Amino acid sequence: MHKKKQVIKAFSDIDFDHYGIWVCTDCHKEVHRLFDHEVLAYHLNTLKKLKENEEMQKFVKWVSRQDKKVKR
Length: 72
Hints:
It is a single chain. About 60% of the residues lie in helices and about 0% in strands. The protein contains six helices and no strands. The longest helix is centred in the last third of the chain and has 11 residues, at about 55-65. About 0% of the residues are buried. The model is unreliable at about 15-20 (pLDDT under 50).
């Protein structure tokens, strides 16, 4: 949940309870490295919008080329 008052006011409880985007851990970390909560809440609040973002496209391209070996 967002703790920012302006974000809480802008979205209803239903929005918070029913909408979210499932992404892998690496992508989640990158999303928060690149964007603050307000940008995510107001501008990049769908998977489509995240996928269309140039910075995220660069990251996805980079991460897709990384070694896929599983650490044991």
